[in-house]
Amino acid sequence: MTDENQNGPSRRAFLTGAGAVAAGTLAGKASAQDDPAIAIKPWMQELGDGVDVSPYGMPSPYEEDVKRRTVEWLTADPVSSINFTPIHALDGTITPNGICFERHHSGVAKVDPAEHRLMINGLVDRELVFTMEDLMRFPRENHVYFLECAANSGMEWRGSQLNGVQFTHGMIHNVQYTGIPLRLLLEEAGVQAEGKWLLAEGADAAGMSRSIPMEKALDDCLVAFKMNGEALRPEQGYPVRLVVPGWEGNMWVKWLRRLEVGDQPWHHREETSKYTDLLDDGTARRFTWEMDAKSVVTSPSPQAPITHGPGPTVLTGLAWSGRGTIPRVDVTIDGGITWHEARMSGPSTPKALHRFYYDFEWDGSPLLVQSRAHDSTGYVQPTKDQLREMRGLNSIYHNNGIQTWAVDADGKAENVEIS
């Protein structure tokens, strides 16, 4: 049996021999004289706040930098805009509700649940209207899914643009949804034989709508009313939204008010002039619903530099696929000359985020950090050059190319591209 494995030194090696040097580095200061922070602090001598000071719990004020951020020049107006999840500051796989990214076409609709209705009409045996109270009487399920905007990483098609993983890859979150299988509501209405498509429409001022194939609607879609155990936030579609697992976020209609069954797609704005992929020859790919396998290293990255200097270092990131699970992620710290299989940790469920780690001994030399996801269908995440060879440079959506961070000798990281 060996003390070494593919992910770095074992605990035994770490505590003996050469590992002892690294252990001494991690142990920090030798005595209280060297580190005055070891002294008695005010919070060790004073009573803290009582249980009712914060009826709805908030993060520590020392974590106030962990928040959604926007890029002002991306859109002409903040009402029809987007902000980004701070994935560089998170660990595990579940995204806290308060920092899930937002994308709106007419701002956040402020819906009174008592006045909200969900209608099913079109090619059905019975046109129905549900109150929220009606919906609460249907069987419900709990599932963890990622939601990714099709434009995530879209600014990077023509080269490195934004220097932060929050901005290059932060149009994504991963939560547990509680909701009603959509098929149960459609069965209640009685979908007619010629009903092959479903139009989902939101109650926002934009009247957001998307066409969904009936096969998908009857498969794994949910009409969700809770996320991570609590009611949807207004910015996430309160009181009810559509969940379309593994497919682009624009189809997850928020403030869901109507479901119309038809015999063909509607070809509305969000599936014609938007959310199609323009190719080099002038033709456009349409109905590119599924999100391809993708991964990114979240630390080290431009917003999460290496600050501890040479020695034991933890590289971590996220991987996901709209077609299944992520059984394997490879990482490289030398720009792809050598690849190492990362350590997967946490739950592995279909169409959800997966967390990976690579533990290594950093010698202080510059790094070129990348990750490469393999999904359960056998698909392997492509390089940006491979993606551009197939799709050209006119696209905005569905950029799942491999991301590179250049880490210098001081541990600072920058968004770069390498051939």
From TrEMBL:
The highest taxon in the source lineage is Bacteria
Occurrences of domain Oxidoreductase molybdopterin-binding (ranges): 105-266
Cofactor(s) named in the record: Mo-molybdopterin
Q: Where is the Moybdenum cofactor oxidoreductase dimerisation domain?
A: 286-403
- List the Pfam families: Mo-co_dimer (PF03404), Oxidored_molyb (PF00174)
Q: Which Gene3D superfamilies match?
A: 2.60.40.650, Oxidoreductase, molybdopterin-binding domain
Keywords annotated in UniProt: Metal-binding, Molybdenum, Oxidoreductase
Q: Give the Gene Ontology MF terms in alphabetical order.
A: heme binding; molybdenum ion binding; molybdopterin cofactor binding; sulfite oxidase activity
Q: Which SUPFAM superfamilies match?
A: E set domains, Oxidoreductase molybdopterin-binding domain
One GO term of the biological process aspect: sulfur compound metabolic process
From the Swiss-Prot or TrEMBL record, give the protein name: Sulfur dehydrogenase subunit SoxC
Query: What species is this protein from?
Result: Sulfitobacter delicatus
Output the lineage of the source organism. Bacteria, Pseudomonadati, Pseudomonadota, Alphaproteobacteria, Rhodobacterales
